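Hi again,

Forgot to attach this to my earlier email, sorry! This is the prediction with FE2/S2 (inorganic) cluster bound. I've pasted everything inline since the attachment limit keeps bouncing my files.
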Amino acid sequence: MEPFRIHLFVCTQKKPEGVSSCAAGGSLSVHCALDREILARGLGGEIQLTTCGCMGLCDEGPVMVVYPEGVWYRRVQALDIPEIVSEHLCKGRIVQRLAWNDAAAMKAMSLEHGEQFRQMTAARDKAGVLPDRLNEMTRGFMSSRCILTALELDIFTAVGDGANAERIATRIHANARATDILLNALVSLGLLLKSSDNYRNTPETARYFVEGAKDNHRDGLLHTANLWHRWGTLTETVRRGNRVPVPGSGTPEWTANFIAGMQRNAKDRASLVVKVIGSAGIHRVLDLGGGSGAYSIAFAKASPNVQCEILDLAEVIPLTSDYVNKAGVSAQVSVRAGNMLQDNYGAGYDIIMLNAICHMFSDGQNRDIFHRARKALAPNGRLVVQDFILNPDKAGPQHAALFSVNMLVGTDCGASYSEAEYADWMRSAGFAEISRIKLPGPSDLIVGSAK
Ligand SMILES: C[S@@+](CC[C@H](N)C(=O)[O-])C[C@H]1O[C@@H](n2cnc3c(N)ncnc32)[C@H](O)[C@@H]1O
Ligand code: FES
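Structure tokens for the complex follow:
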């Protein structure tokens, strides 16, 4: 008995460089396209989508199999997915141009491929070839740099509905030969499509990187492009022990991209945090370093009885006001320019939030902030901290450990911290009922009560 009407397996196996594989052929985009199409058609309850490892048919990849029928598709691309879903999965009509029916040839190819692969792996190991994992990690910056430059030059918008390299270069005021080289690399990374000399956006890049698209993330990702310059100072920063100033850092444009990046991260999480903390009985919220105001906006939208106050640096406050006004909650959310390390917080708050704040500061600065927050809370008020939290040994999880490096190159004394450190700061400041609340995604909450 099958628990699902259809079970799809998409091979997403990666192989050493130069060896054909479904991943190199674009199977991750195929998987994403399937996921999207199944969701869009409301088929999640009857179709199970699973990634799988090599089936030995790599030269014909990306390969996918439809069970229980046992229909095999080869050379599938993301653009084929709407047809496969509507024709085969919905109407039972196999897409013949992609189907592969020759079982004997498939088996022979699979066995031969497996043997070749084992021999090649053994030979590489014997010769002391650098393992792919190390190779890929070392050169990971190349793909990252291509996408960041494409975003900086707004290439995906310039590609529009399709254009050749010369036209794209003219639109972005760049050199045609260099643009063409970059465009081809973007095709190889699965970020553009190419037919003849015409480049087109993929469904993903059209959705997330093109000016005017509803889900365009470019403004926020330009903050990541800015971080590139800071990360370039890492070697020198580690030698010196403190950050190396980077030209352009802190300009109005840099700040606007930074806050846009924060807003993109916070938008989805804010309603989740408000749900977990609850808005019933909450009247006054102080949002320290509120940035785009995403969390205060979510609180205001959750309850008409909540009044929020955002404290942020003077250069950020005009941006904060814009976000708050656009969200239509200015009657419930006020803004205040100030420095949370020096200024008085006020008194009588039910909630004080520190979302993505503590990693900017040192142990001593955080202790001081927690003490002052404790004094500014109403008797039963709560301090809500959200951050990337390190394991006790500080060597993971990876996103928190890498973020600590981001703070090393970007701040005077910031870092990621462990749960034990947060709990210690809370206890020292007089908080009780300290708990960690796990959230989906990379950051968690630490909550303490001012009882
Ligand atoms: C990483 S962002 C987090 C923004 C927001 N809480 C969120 O999660 O989306 C840090 C915020 O703290 C603000 N900030 C940094 N130092 C500050 C200080 N000394 N006083 C007040 N705000 C500060 C920054 O301007 C920025 O808006
Ligand atoms: S990598 Fe997919 S079949 Fe081998």
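The mean pLDDT is 96. The first strand starts at residue 6 and ends at 11.

That should be everything now.

G.
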